[in-house]
Amino acid sequence: xxxxxxxxxxxxxxxxxxxxxxxxxxxxxxxxxxxxxxxxxxxxxxxxxxxxxxxxxxxxxxxxxxxxxxxxxxxxxxxxxxxxxxxxxxxxxxxxxxxxxxxxxxxxxxxxxxxxxxxxxxxxxxxxxxxxxxxxxxxxxxxxxxxxxxxxxxxxxxxxxxxxxxxxxxxxxxxxxxxxxxxxxxxxxxxxxxxxxxxxxxxxxxxxxxxxxxxxxxxxxxxxxxxxxxxxxxxxxxxxxxxxxxxxxxxxxxxxxxxxxxxxxxxxxxxxxxxxxxxxxxxxxxxxxxxxxxxxxxxxxxxxxxxxxxxxxxxxxxxxxxxxxxxxxxxxxxxxxxxxxxxxxxxxxxxxxxxxxxxxxxxxxxxxxxxxxxxxxxxxxxxxxxxxxxxxxxxxxxxxxxxxxxxxxxxxxxxxxxxxxxxxxxxxxxxxxxxxxxxxxxxxxxxxxxxxxxxxxxxxxxxxxxxxxxxxxxxxxxxxxxxxxxxxxxxxxxxxxxxxxxxxxxxxxxxxxxxxxxxxxxxxxxxxxxxxxxxxxxxxxxxxxxxxxxxxxxxxxxxxxxxxxxxxxxxxxxxxxxxxxxxxxxxxxxxxxxxxxxxxxxxxxxxxxxxxxxxxxxxxxxxxxxxxxxxxxxxxxxxxxxxxxxxxxxxxxxxxxxxxxxxxxxxxxxxxxxxxxxxxxxxxxxxxxxxxxxxxxxxxxxxxxxxxxxxxxxxxxxxxxxxxxxxxxxxxxxxxxxx
Length: 739
Description:
Blueprint: H1 11-17, H2 22-31, H3 35-56, H4 60-77, E1 87-92, H5 94-104, H6 112-125, E2 129-132, H7 144-157, E3 160-163, E4 165-166, H8 177-182, E5 198-199, H9 205-208, E6 211-213, E7 230-232, E8 234-237, E9 240-243, H10 245-254, E10 258-261, E11 264-267, E12 270-273, E13 279-281, H11 298-306, E14 322-327, E15 335-337, E16 342-344, H12 345-357, E17 363-364, H13 367-387, H14 390-415, E18 417-418, H15 422-436, H16 440-454, H17 460-468, E19 478-490, H18 492-496, H19 501-521, E20 525-530, E21 533-538, H20 547-573, E22 578-594, E23 599-604, H21 606-621, E24 625-628, H22 629-635, E25 639-648, E26 656-664, H23 670-687, H24 691-704, H25 709-723, E27 733-735
Parallel strand pairs: 1-14, 2-3, 2-14, 3-6, 17-18, 22-24, 25-27
Antiparallel strand pairs: 4-5, 7-13, 8-9, 10-11, 11-12, 15-16, 19-21, 19-22, 20-21, 22-23, 24-26, 25-26
């Protein structure tokens, strides 16, 4: 017989022996092009993106975001410990206005002798110079004779700077203009902004002041957001230059004159380069009131001068210092926006003065540097987008973006250089997107494969997440602030003894369904069920700015839904069930956790453990909704809560303040509010070791609500401490021994 020919392999076997995956097809496609062709494609994408962003790099829409990133950088490196030691801010506070009114029945504006007293004290204390951030244009209608005394004190002091205002709708006190021009800082350079009007202070103040300065309004007038990122050297009127407070005070402190040229100003050998609007970049280190850590007030200085001060000021704190006095009273409306936060108007001048004295001017890089960065990052992204798979490209682009942003942060924090972030990072992202379109067909095939493999046993939402980022279904997680929810049912065990097995399962499912729907209604994620216990969380996987409030609303709604279910179960089984709930907020790890073949999206971390402890701690206080300190701080404006205790849970050394969640704001019943008032008085007395008084207040609370669990607990605690007073080491921290 002829030899048997070997069987021809089946077509499927051939495919299995030589798999043609999407990766191999991609590689084949890429290798079909020459290196030169791929380089041309990358260059074309990079050039297109680079040209577009170079043209639009400093359009206002992009500039808006760029300024916001600058603010982020200021916030990152803000450090009040680095402010200049010889700058002191003194505030005119709401308490100042109130105390003067109560003592003298004197409202605002104050008699000018008040300022005279303050100047006297500061001169005696040895202040280097004083700036009054107030307008003294009009004579004091009720005390005109005091204007003269004030002017004499200013002249005698010889170190006081007074404001003139610019750009009023109508020129006032035109007769003062010659005297004002005589006190100007010289001829105005062409870059200094000129104003059509100028209004000076009282005639007698003009010659006596150390300098007449322009208010500058403390902000870059061309900044659409009105944020004090830049600061003027001065303002001009009639060809005369009037220095801003910061520049005038800096020149006085340094003992050097101010000179102008076509590029800016100089104080001795200290250079102030300005932009076309006459502004320089200020460096921000301090938030509101951080230039006044000792909380010096104008009324306090006056009281020290009069010998009536409740708080004695040390003259050494002012000796040789530049003192800036301005308003912090809300009613005087002298607040400005800074890169850090809302600050006092006078603190804008303090920050600019600090910038000059420490020679820390913020300089923005030239436009050509930004264009170079745009093209460099676009070229890098385009080349990587064509040559790499998406799963490797995305981390690379993110790494480069983070590295570039980190470099920009470093330049501002260590070199006071403003390196643009938005345009270069947009170039990186757009070039990545453009070049990645070359791989679109391959990536589409990968997504179809994923959907065919996983679509049958994963929810559509998770399939979509896997398509976008397959690494999501690997072990790992991310850290973010979230709110954890733990609840446990009390009384269900007793009720289950009266049920058949099928009834037990049915009632359990009825309860869990009701509570789960409630949690989902307030956008929570149910983590797991453990018998009749429910674990849930907020702010993952989707971020929720109001996650703590949502969690509280869900907890309240759980109790509301359970109340209806409880009534039905009492009728059927004669047993009342209650749910204890614990909420806590903090940094947690969210992610897929488990083994390689079985894992769940869940949470872990100390705040999660504390939430579980708070659920259990309800038993000690006979409460049913307990929240932690961090949750309370986020919801206190939206929820009615009462402080329960400072407790140290098992396994932790640091105690935490815990609160009972009562209801949403505005929904507290009058009877409950009265009970809470008595309770809070009792808690205050208890912590002051006034145990008899505390016991009495808690008993009064119980007269209003005999079922108030925390009041019952504190009655017993107070009674014990009355009978057996504690030693000197006693604290009101409650150490919880069990979990």
